[in-house]
Amino acid sequence: MTSSVVTEIHVSAPGKLILHGEHAVVYGKAAIAAALNLRSHLQLKQTTDGNLQLELPDVGISVQFALASLESISFSGSLEDQSHSDEDILVIKNFAGIDVNSCEPKHLAIVSFLYVFCSIFKNKSQWPSLRVHFKSDLPVGAGLGSSAAFSVSLSAALLQLAGHIDSLKLADGITSWSNEDKIVINKWGFICEKIIHGRPSGIDNSISTYGGALKMQNGQITHLEKMPQLSVMLVNTKVPRSTMVLVAGVRQKYNLYQDVMEPILNSVEAITKRAENIYQECSTNITDDGFKALGDLVDLNHNLLNAMGVGHASLDQVVAVTKKYGLHSKLTGAGGGGCAYVLIPSDTSEELLSSLKEELNALGFDVWSKTTVGGLGVLRDL
Ligand SMILES: Nc1ncnc2c1ncn2[C@@H]1O[C@H](COP(=O)(O)OP(=O)(O)O)[C@@H](O)[C@H]1O
Ligand SMILES: C[C@@](O)(CCOP(=O)(O)O)CC(=O)O
Ligand SMILES: [Mg+2]
């Protein structure tokens, strides 16, 4: 049967840069993150062919499920849930023919998609027949929050379709959601992140929902309104890694050596707080002294992440190369490969940046030369 389009919803959500405090934030310590100008784009089209069609070209998937058989699985989750149920995940994996222990990107994406879809539409008399297409500017699984951008866009689009939230045209011509609606989007983004990551802090989905820059501590968000313009170079080592595995590795170390790990996590928190003070004191432009101190904090933070066991030789290579140019860098996100950021003081010359980029490219790394952080959160695109 050919499908005819009824409704179309387009949503985009940003990736994130954790400036300081990754991993420590999972233990309630402070972390600071900002939205990136790299975004993920989801297009949802309502169809009439009775299927749920999922196109995820970044992870090489195009699958479809018959709605009638999905509706008949014994799924107990609901919109009121604060977390996912393991039994429901098993039911979904069985339904989709996915191995129970698979952590493959495409499988995590399908399971989290089906979970959010079933939870949101469970009590509706008719489930919508859909074609969902998702494409990202972000590298998948590299520390820039691709999972959160996926989780947040998906939650926003499905909640909008179900009528649980209602997008608004804002004064500056953009269409997004009220703060109240964003709380609901963020809650579902977090549930989706939990399915992908295991035990996330919630910082990634929060920044992807709200945008700008924020501090998270003990699960509480503080929006950093006075964040100065900050330029960074992003470097993707392209070494594959899984956030779930890295977070679980730190947990294992913490459980075995809590007395050793706790001071490391506290030192990371002290770094985050020092950096926050610098950002707040230099709310428009960071001073030379500010950049000097931030550089020291970036170095210390990178070394402490190495001490936690989430470093990688490729990330140390980035740090070593940037040091030759008088610049400072650290891994960002879960580590173990993936991305690092390089702090770019405002007086850095274009020549220096282009030589640095060339040297990093020659090592096989991808480089986004000069990125500013603090962009918009989730948006309904036209
Ligand atoms: N573009 C995408 N298409 C499909 N799934 C995605 C996409 N981006 C992220 N994901 C999902 O998120 C997972 C990557 O998350 P994670 O390991 O946390 O890395 P990241 O640091 O990029 O968030 C993938 O395994 C996949 O399940
Ligand atoms: C390591 C951690 O602090 C960030 C993980 O980010 P990413 O998935 O690597 O982009 C985990 C978390 O905060 O949930
Ligand atoms: Mg992630």
UniProtKB/TrEMBL annotation:
Q: Where in the cell is it found?
A: Cytoplasm
Key words, A-Z: ATP-binding, Cytoplasm, Kinase, Lipid biosynthesis, Lipid metabolism, Magnesium, Metal-binding, Nucleotide-binding, Steroid biosynthesis, Steroid metabolism, Sterol biosynthesis, Sterol metabolism, Transferase
Looking at the record, the residues that make up the GHMP kinase C-terminal domain are 291-360
Location, primary (coarse class): cytoplasm
Mention any Pfam family matching this sequence. GHMP_kinases_N
Which GO cellular component terms, listed alphabetically, does the Swiss-Prot or TrEMBL entry include? cytosol
Could you say which enzyme class this protein belongs to?
A: transferase
In this chain the GHMP kinase N-terminal domain maps to 119-212
Q: What is its EC number?
A: 2.7.1.36
Q: What biological-process terms (Gene Ontology) are attached?
A: cholesterol biosynthetic process; isopentenyl diphosphate biosynthetic process, mevalonate pathway
Q: Which NCBIfam families match?
A: mevalon_kin (TIGR00549)
Family statement drawn from the similarity comment of this UniProt entry? Belongs to the GHMP kinase family. Mevalonate kinase subfamily.
Q: What is this protein called?
A: Mevalonate kinase
The lineage is:
Eukaryota, Metazoa, Spiralia, Lophotrochozoa, Mollusca
What gene codes for this chain?
LOC106062387
